[in-house]
């Protein structure tokens, strides 16, 4: 963390330093002048001056940013109520003449979210986040009316994590919608959503969500400490934050989980983890993240345990296939053909007889082609993406074999590794295995099976030393009480997972009670059985 | 960031001990015990195991007398400073020699069974460097690694052994206990070197979350190792027969050449058994390597041990290449066991304990005794 501070604390003064605080002026025109000067050449800002009163003696002005506000709200709740309805009602004359400002604040503006602001700079930030400023002539304070209302994508099905069974709601780009999706799932005062702003220019809203009674205090403090240490001009995506708060940025393994699914976040909060929600992105960060957690899909918890366990085991197997397969092929064909049955060894040698390359070059060629195809397919629109698949799979695959450049077995191996890496639930944990595969292939080329063992050992040592916010990356496989293994390679029956993982939560560890067995005559599932 | 500030659990100490002690010794263990006691080799394993368990337990009792201190510090208290430093230096030398043997025997075995054209030097160097990476990560990572790998070493070994059950001829183990007790005892002295490694607890106890549990951990770890050794010796001797075992340099590996897995994809499982041994010996090497580095860093009162890791690698590499061939390696190993292994593993720790008891030292509860100890709490 010292390193992080050193790297990210600006040594030189920069021009993005905070502006001096300026209080408002009593004169309406001066106030307007201030905003117009600061917002010069900002043509999306709308100023509207109007007068209220029988003789139009009270000057008012509203300022808002066009497109970011709810126009209906401004027309109905501010302009209409101030200009028309106030004159119709008959407030007591003493109050009316005495303090037009407090009358406006308390009696005239019918909008729900209203606050006062003393400093113009702060009011400016609110204005630029979509609030409407109401200035009253003769008063220093600015009335800030919450009127955020821009068009947004709405709640849609998450693109990256689709499920067969489970809720189909996904996070959206607006922070408020995202927090509401969480609040709907956890209607508990212990769900805390603490907001802060990040980015000197972007002033992005960040929310840190956690369950007050479950969260691991140490992790929470560490999250806050690392978030405060960030000093950056703008935050475009939660990925910015992820890269600034992760423990080890030389590691190929992600140490922060990201998800688009509110149910996943809610479940994580119930395990005592901390969520970092960032405005303008549907990706919510979850810390701490362990290898095991990254291998889980939310569906694992909705399916019955037997199915879920089998699928989870399959995922671990496919990760090792995607990691090991090409390297093992290289090692066996070039160093240890004696380890496999003689018939198979002869067959492989036969198919490779026309191949002009050594096994390593052959494998490297095909693996590189695969990565190219995958990368080409990702950013293309759907129909073209499929064309790429056909071109790559059929044309290149078949043609390369027909031309005798690669052996058919190599094509099978490459396809297997590709399919295996697609079965891993999240994209960011599949990548390290894809990358490390090449390291392993190189080691297999130099030292055969022993090289592969060396590669595996290096990877394991790295994984063992890695931590995510103080939690060992490999827990609960190591260093935790054995009951936590119920939610690792397998998923034990829900009824047997009665405790929260100790490695993640801070105390308060009972999450489920088996009332069917505890009390006589009480049928049905326990009420405390919170779904993950 | 200091890498030694994290503590290990008692389970991790058990795992470290198991992965540390099961090393190159096991390859030749059936041959050694059979040479000493014929069909009664298994009895030697039991005697050696019991003695080692007792000594291992005494070591942890010794650590309990000096909470927050490792042998580097309390040997100075017990033996006076110059002798204490000498003891620590000897300890380092002992660890380094052990590492060198592990590396050399490993390289030789690998060359014979897996990579017959790769130079020994390359195998030794790559293995040593990988281990250096492990040692740099510190004790907590090593604990986690051991916890992860011990099942990966033990379970596949027994799985691969399963098909051999049909080939075992138990009359190879007859007659039972015809060796004279005196012969058994002298043979046990040789066998005990296979149990060396537990003395690392002299250093590791300080890094436990609850150092008091170290004794219990040792009482779990040592018998488990004994059972594993027994399984290896009995299976090897019963498959190969006494005369065969005596002739083969690494009988524990040789039996896997005979085993055919029914209906399996694999022609030869010895390649995969070798992979398991790579892992096992890797942990042994890393443990002793860490012991050397840790002793040195505690002597120099360094906060972070990782600076010392790479400078020691060439020393181990050099030592490992001194013997000309495998036979010489084993000659050296016998000498080493006699003059360094038994003293540092058995005699000195017990001596220190007796000395501490004679002086009537009582454990000081919850007090930081010395500065370096306090840092690591």
Walkthrough of the structure:
The complex is a heterodimer of chains A (532) and B (377). With 532 residues, chain A is an alpha+beta fold. Chain A folds into 3 domains: 16-145, no CATH class; 175-296, no CATH class; 313-471, no CATH class. Chain A has helices at 2-8, 28-38, 71-88, 93-98, 100-108, 120-128, 175-185, 217-228, 238-245, 262-270, 291-294, 299-302, 305-334, 342-351, 359-378, 382-402, 408-423, 427-465, 515-518; strands spanning 45-52, 58-65, 114-117, 132-136, 142-145, 191-198, 204-211, 257-259, 274-278, 284-287, 467-468, 471-472. By secondary structure, chain B is mainly α. Chain B has helices spanning 10-21, 25-37, 41-65, 71-79, 81-113, 120-136, 138-161, 181-191, 201-204, 214-240, 242-247, 251-258, 270-299, 309-320, 326-359, 371-375. In chain B, α4 (71-79) crosses α5 and α5 runs antiparallel to α13 (270-299). The two termini of chain B are 15 Å apart. At the A-B interface, α18 of A face α6, α7 and α13 of B.
């Amino acid at each position: 963390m010292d390193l992080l501070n050193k790297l990210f604390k600006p040594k030189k003064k920069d021009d993005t330093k905070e502006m001096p605080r300026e209080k408002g002026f009593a004169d309406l025109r001066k106030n307007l002048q201030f905003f117009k000067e600061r917002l010069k050449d900002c043509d999306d800002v709308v100023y509207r001056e109007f007068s209220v009163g029988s003789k139009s003696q009270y000057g008012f002005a509203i300022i808002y940013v066009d497109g970011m506000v709810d126009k209906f709200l401004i027309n109905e709740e501010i302009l209409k109520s101030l200009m028309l309805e106030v004159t119709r009602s008959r407030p007591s004359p003493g109050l009316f003449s005495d303090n037009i400002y407090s009358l406006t604040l308390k009696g005239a503006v019918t909008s729900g979210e209203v606050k006062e602001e003393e400093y113009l700079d702060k009011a400016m930030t609110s204005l630029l986040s979509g609030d409407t400023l109401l200035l009253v002539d003769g008063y220093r304070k600015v009335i800030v009316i919450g009127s955020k209302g821009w068009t947004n994508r709405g709640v849609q099905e998450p693109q990256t994590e689709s499920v067969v069974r489970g809720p189909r709601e996904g996070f959206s780009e607006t922070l408020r919608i995202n927090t509401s999706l969480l609040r709907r799932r956890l209607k508990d005062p212990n769900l805390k959503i603490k907001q802060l702003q990040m980015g000197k220019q972007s002033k992005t809203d960040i929310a840190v969500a956690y369950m007050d009674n479950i969260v691991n205090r140490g992790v929470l403090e560490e999250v806050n400490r690392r978030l405060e240490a960030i000093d950056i001009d703008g935050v475009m995506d939660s990925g910015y934050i992820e890269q600034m708060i992760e423990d080890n940025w030389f590691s190929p393994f992600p140490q922060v989980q990201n998800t688009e699914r509110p149910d996943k976040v809610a479940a994580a909060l119930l395990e005592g983890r901390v969520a970092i929600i960032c405005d303008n992105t549907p990706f919510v960060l979850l810390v701490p993240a362990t290898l095991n957690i990254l291998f889980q899909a939310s569906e694992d918890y909705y399916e019955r345990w037997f199915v879920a366990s089998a699928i989870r085991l399959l995922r671990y197997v496919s990760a090792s296939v995607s990691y090991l397969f090409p390297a093992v092929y290289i090692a066996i064909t070039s160093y240890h053909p004696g380890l496999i049955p003689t018939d198979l060894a002869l067959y492989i040698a036969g198919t490779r007889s026309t191949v002009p390359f050594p096994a390593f070059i052959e494998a490297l060629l095909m693996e590189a082609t695969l990565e190219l195809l995958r990368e080409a397919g990702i950013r293309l629109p759907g129909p073209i993406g499929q064309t790429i698949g056909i071109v790559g799979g059929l044309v290149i695959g078949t043609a390369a074999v027909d031309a005798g450049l690669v052996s058919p077995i190599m094509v099978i191996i490459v396809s297997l590794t590709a399919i295996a890496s697609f079965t891993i639930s999240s994209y960011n944990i599949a990548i390290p295995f894809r990358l490390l595969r090449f390291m392993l292939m190189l080691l297999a080329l130099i030292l055969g099976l022993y090289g592969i063992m060396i590669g595996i050992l290096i990877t394991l040592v790295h994984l063992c030393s890695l931590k995510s916010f103080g939690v060992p990356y490999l827990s609960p496989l190591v260093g935790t009480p054995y009951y936590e293994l119920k939610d690792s390679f397998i998923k034990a029956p829900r009824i047997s997972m009665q405790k929260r993982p100790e490695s993640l939560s801070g105390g308060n560890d009972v999450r489920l009670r088996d009332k069917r067995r505890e009390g006589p005559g009480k049928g049905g599932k326990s009420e405390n059985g919170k779904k993950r | 960031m200091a890498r030694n500030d994290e503590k290990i659990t008692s389970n991790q100490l058990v795992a470290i001990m198991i992965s540390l002690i099961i090393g190159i010794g096991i390859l030749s263990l059936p041959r050694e015990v059979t040479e000493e006691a014929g069909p009664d080799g298994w009895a030697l394993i039991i005697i050696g195991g019991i003695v080692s368990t007792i000594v291992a337990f005494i070591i942890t009792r010794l650590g309990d007398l000096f909470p927050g201190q490792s042998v580097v510090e309390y040997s100075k208290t017990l033996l006076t400073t110059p002798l204490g430093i000498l003891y620590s230096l000897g300890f380092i030398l002992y660890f380094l020699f052990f590492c060198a043997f592990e590396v050399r025997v490993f390289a030789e075995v690998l060359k014979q069974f897996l990579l017959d054209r790769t130079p020994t030097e390359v195998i030794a160097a790559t293995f040593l460097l990988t281990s250096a990476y492990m040692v740099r990560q510190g004790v907590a990572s090593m604990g986690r690694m051991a916890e992860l790998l011990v099942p990966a070493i033990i379970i596949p070994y027994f799985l691969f052994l399963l098909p051999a059950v049909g080939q075992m001829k138990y009359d190879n183990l007859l007659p039972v206990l015809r060796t004279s007790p005196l012969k058994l005892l002298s043979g046990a002295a040789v066998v005990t070197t296979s149990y060396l490694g537990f003395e690392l607890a002299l250093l590791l106890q300080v890094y436990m979350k609850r150092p008091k549990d170290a004794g219990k951990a040792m009482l779990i770890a040592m018998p488990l190792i004994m059972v594993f050794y027994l399984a290896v010796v009995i299976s090897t001797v019963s498959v190969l027969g006494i005369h065969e075992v005596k002739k083969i340099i690494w009988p524990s590996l040789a039996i896997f050449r005979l085993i055919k897995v029914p209906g399996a994809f694999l022609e030869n499982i010895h390649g995969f058994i070798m992979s398991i041994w790579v892992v096992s010996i890797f942990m042994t090497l890393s443990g002793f390597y860490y012991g050397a580095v840790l002793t040195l860093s505690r002597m120099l009162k360094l906060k972070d041990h990782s600076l010392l890791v790479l400078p020691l690698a060439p020393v181990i590499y050099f030592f490992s290449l001194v013997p000309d061939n495998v036979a010489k390696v084993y000659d050296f190993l016998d000498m080493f066991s006699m003059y360094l292994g038994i003293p540092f593993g058995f005699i000195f720790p017990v001596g220190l304990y007796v000395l501490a008891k004679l002086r009537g030292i009582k454990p000081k509860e919850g007090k930081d005794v010395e500065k370096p100890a306090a840092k690591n709490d």
